[in-house]
Amino acid sequence: AQSVAQPEDQVNVAEGNPLTVKCTYSVSGNPYLFWYVQYPNRGLQFLLKYITGDNLVKGSYGFEAEFNKSQTSFHLKKPSALVSDSALYFCAVRDSTDSWGKLQFGAGTQVVVTP
Amino acid sequence: GAGVSQSPSNKVTEKGKDVELRCDPISGHTALYWYRQSLGQGLEFLIYFQGNSAPDKSGLPSDRFSAERTGGSVSTLTIQRTQQEDSAVYLCASSPPYNEQFFGPGTRLTVL
Q1: What is the pLDDT of residue B1?
Q2: Core vs surface per residue B31-61: b (16+ CB within 10 A) or e
Q3: Running DSSP on this structure, what letter comes out for residue A104?
Q4: Best mutation site among A4, A88, A100 for testing chain B: the one with the most B CBs within 10 Å?
Q5: Average pLDDT in the B103-109 region?
Q6: B87, pLDDT greater than 80
Q7: Using the beta-carbon criterion (under 8 Å), do A108 and B43 form an inter-chain contact?
Q8: A92 CB-contact burial (10 Å; exposed 0-12 / middle 13-18 / buried 19+)
Q9: Do A103 and B45 touch (CB under 8 A)?
Q10: What residue of A is the nearest CA neighbor of B31?
Q11: Is the predicted pLDDT of residue B23 greater than 70, yes or no?
Q12: Rounded to whole angstroms, how far apart are CA atoms B102 and A95?
């Protein structure tokens, strides 16, 4: 079974400060990891993914995430947050042995960036 | 190019009625997924289709829920005898081989 934990329901950060959204996972095989963002009344938008290779993954809108196998984590980061980054962020995992399978999502973290 | 589209965007129905939700995936994507997003429940997998293989129905919450995918493209999620707890946003996603899923805007279902 696979699972994802996003320990923070909400993250508050001032504009211009670094933003981190935490994610830990559990899978039986190797993980495929994803971050998605959801703006109000919109579907999910893909930000970035880790499949294999470099542990530091760069994605859309200046976001990046670091895969840490020993800590089973895949935290999302942005060096300088913008007010427009305020949204709901989801971490998701899929077991590499099930390439066509469903994503297991975390509960989501609401990011609030204040001017 | 065109993304995943879903219709209707909003659906209000009365308890006990049947509803059909439609998903048009991105052309060429062989995998199609349905998820449900409820307040307090997060994102919940419902069903997925991969090519001509039998669908994975393991996430369907009851036998009132069913889905089909015609011609490997358009999919319809049907909920029979709707209940108030079915109220949620229903999200569809499609995916090319070994890649991330692309989501549609969702259908907001309200059961009165």
Answers
A1: 58
A2: bbbbbbbeeeebbbbbbbbbeeeebbeebbe
A3: E
A4: A100
A5: 95
A6: yes
A7: yes
A8: buried
A9: yes
A10: A100
A11: yes
A12: 18
Average of pLDDT values for A27-35? 91
Burial (CB < 10 A; 0-12, 13-18, 19+), residue B67, is buried
Tokens of A53: 């290779």
The answer to whether residue B59 scores a pLDDT higher than 80 is yes
Q: What is the pLDDT of residue A41?
A: 77
Pairing relation of β-strands A10-14 and A109-114? parallel
User: Residue B3 is encoded by which pair of tokens?
Assistant: 């993304």
Written as six digits, the tokens of A97 are 């042995």
Buried b (16+ CB within 10 A) or exposed e, A54-86: eeebebeeebbbebeeeebbbbbbbeebeeebb
Whether A46 and B102 lie within 8 Å, measured CB to CB: yes
Which one of B56, B97, B103 has the shortest CB-CB distance to A44? Answer: B103
* Structure tokens belonging to residue B11: 């659906």
Strands, sheet with B5-7, edge to edge from the N-terminal-most edge strand = B5-7, B19-24, B75-79, B65-69
Residue B41 has pLDDT above 90, yes or no: no
DSSP 8-class letter at A41 = T
Interface with A, mutate which of B34, B43, B102 (most A CBs under 10 A):
B43
Dump pLDDT digits (tens) for A60-77. Answer: 999 999 999 999 999 999
